[in-house]
Design brief:
Layout: E1 2-5, H1 10-22, E2 27-31, E3 51-55, H2 61-71, E4 75-78, H3 85-90, H4 92-115, H5 119-124, E5 126-132, H6 157-176, E6 180-185, E7 187-189, H7 198-207, E8 212-215, E9 221-226, H8 227-240, E10 246-249, E11 254-256, H9 257-271, E12 284-287, H10 302-308, H11 316-329, H12 331-337, H13 340-350
Parallel strand pairs: 1-2, 1-4, 2-3, 4-5, 5-6, 6-10, 7-9, 8-12
Antiparallel strand pairs: 9-11
């Protein structure tokens, strides 16, 4: 049995589905179901006895202690986090509460559980903390990619809160001996992505005939990682990663935001052309850049390949084609996720 937090979100739900698809080990899924948590992501396993869903907060020490005592997991994977930079600019306190205070309380609960295990269970236990490349700050055009030894230099309230959580996880290993693992991933994309991030936002806006908002000049560079590749990396780290180590997980796919959106438009032009025959690129609209927008992220994923034999299976071209096809084939999911709250957020952010 493993315990996963944030397993109804984008990456977490993909992980839960993939975990049950490749093995039979049961999974307990703890998620508070804030705006980006969506149980519809997990509808295909509604009746699967291997999946137990619990609605709750990682900061609820009583609840977490009860779950750990009841299910006695051999591992915990912490996906739970507020993760959208734009939202962190408008409401930084939410990010401090979940990513810093919540992680602290969760670590305390897990430490108490782990400390009471017998020696064999104790040595086999793992706490895997899922983080982001944004903790490393920004890169210049010619700078080498982030490695696991790159100094932290977070530039947004979101990345600062994730950096703090990473430091707490590290400290609980070095101070208390908690057997932790940390992964820092690049930008994920793929099925079930909540439509506030660049790729799903532009996909949905394109099909709705709305502007495709691009910050600044659109030349901000990110390393793009297909979400199912990320899930396989986490399984590899959980299985074979060295305790106390950090593993950077990247797709080896650096792309400027504008190039990403142009690629989306080209795929849509072929799969679902506009009635007027005009390319979706005509809907691209440049908007005022967000405050403190990092220029470039790039992940050096050499360590995880060298030590664990993991490397991504999807190129950006194959991954983005699968992503667009998924959204076109899952319009009911799209319609249900685009709630009134979400529309209000878009109006506030891109007005």
């Amino acid at each position: 049995m493993i315990l996963v937090t944030g397993g109804a979100g984008f990456i977490g739900s993909n992980f839960v589905l993939d975990w049950l698809a490749v093995g039979d080990e049961p999974i307990v899924n703890l998620d508070l179901l804030t705006y980006a948590g969506n149980l519809e992501n997990l509808s295909s396993i509604d009746d699967d006895p291997r999946h137990t869903f619990v609605r709750g907060d990682i900061g609820d020490s009583k609840l977490v202690a009860e779950l750990l005592h009841k299910y006695t997991p051999r591992a915990v994977i912490n996906f739970a986090a507020e993760s959208h930079v734009d939202r962190s600019i408008h409401s930084p306190e939410d990010f401090i509460q979940t990513n810093v205070v919540g992680t602290f309380h969760f670590l305390e609960s897990v430490r108490a559980y782990w400390s009471a295990l017998d020696d064999q269970s104790k040595s086999g236990f793992r706490f895997l903390h899922v983080s982001t490349d944004e903790v490393y700050g920004t890169l210049g055009d010619k700078d080498p990619a982030f490695t696991e030894t790159t100094p932290y230099a977070p530039n947004s309230p979101y990345s600062a809160s994730k950096a703090a959580s990473d430091h707490l996880v590290r400290a609980y290993h070095h101070t208390y001996g908690l057997p932790v693992l940390t992964t820092n991933c690049s930008n994920n994309y793929g099925p079930y992505h909540f439509p506030e991030k660049l790729i799903p936002l532009c996909l949905l806006n394109a099909m709705a005939g709305k502007p495709l908002p691009i910050y600044g000049d659109g030349q901000q560079v990110r390393d793009w990682l297909f979400v199912k590749d990320h899930c396989s990396a986490i399984r590899s780290v959980l299985s074979d990663g060295r305790v106390g180590e950090t593993y950077n997980v990247g797709g080896w796919n650096e792309k400027a935001n504008l190039d990403v959106v142009n690629t989306l438009c080209e795929i849509l032009d072929k799969l679902k052309p506009r009635a007027d025959g005009v390319s979706y690129k005509a809907q691209i609209t440049f908007v005022k850049d967000r405050p403190g927008h990092d220029r470039r992220y790039a992940i050096d994923a050499t360590k995880i390949e060298r030590e664990l034999g993991w490397k991504p299976q999807e190129t950006f071209e194959t991954g983005i084609a699968k992503t667009v096809a998924w959204y076109l084939e899952n319009q009911p999911w799209v319609s249900n996720v685009v709630s009134g709250e979400y529309r209000q957020w878009l109006n506030k952010q891109y007005s």
